[in-house]
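Hello Y.,

Per our agreement to keep a running log of every chain we model this quarter, I'm adding this entry. I've kept the format consistent with earlier entries: sequence first, then predicted structure.
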Amino acid sequence: MRHRVPPDLAGERLDRVVAKLGPLSRSVAGALVEAGGVTVDGAVGNRKQRVAAGVVIEFARPEPEVALAPEAVPFTVRYEDRHLAVVDKPAGVVVHPGAGRSKGTLASGILQRWPSVRGVGVEGRWGIVHRLDRDTSGLLVVALDPESYEGLRAAIGARAVTRRYLALTHGKPSAPTGTVEAAIARNPARPTRMRIDPRGRPARTHYRLVASWREFSLLDVTLDTGRTHQIRVHLGSIGLPIAGDPTYGRPGGSPRVFLHAHHLGLQHPVTGERIEVDSPLPDDLAAAVAALGPAEAG
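Predicted structure for the entry above:
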């Protein structure tokens, strides 16, 4: 959808403008902006951005909201109190409904496990404050009440939540540690893919070499930001495509995208205590590492 902002909406926040032009609910419009799905005169916009009359706003109308139903969806609870939980998502499970998928999502499993989460956050994704790609396994934090939801959203926005991943890549990094800082935007020619684009949303990824083999490297990756496909795009851009990634990488080394969210650290939004949660490497990825044989020395 392409809209030119009328004078009566000049100076409004971008999420409010998108909601009015859609028309969309405020929560859906905000989620669309935060996902990088809205451009202002060709550049990716941000939620709090004020827009001027006459600028061109473009966005795709999201899938209709789906009434979320509780389902028995597999996941492991790694931490839980009455305010929040940290869950371990298996690979192959979509976090919330969308793009034609309405059943078997983690959101439905969360609603079955904690029925009181209904009404916390956004319709169709109750309690969810961040996400993982379908083929990525590992840890997510879930808000179980409104106070935690707002606190966790603020902490993620302030980059106060530590998220670490293990990634097996083709190739070897030029140094044992490094940072990739490059803006990411949706690829207009292939809308399901992201790409490096200076007009996109800022993104920063840090990595540390854990082990290496002749053709592969195991990296411990930390996110400062959480853009869609960020690790896959950033590592691919420096010649380290993730093993088993059919979209940004190439076959070999892993039966699926070798990306696992293995550590989550945060300050509890209600009690203030520090929470550190770890997840072991799933069996399929552990087997992929074992199949590589002994790592190189040094």
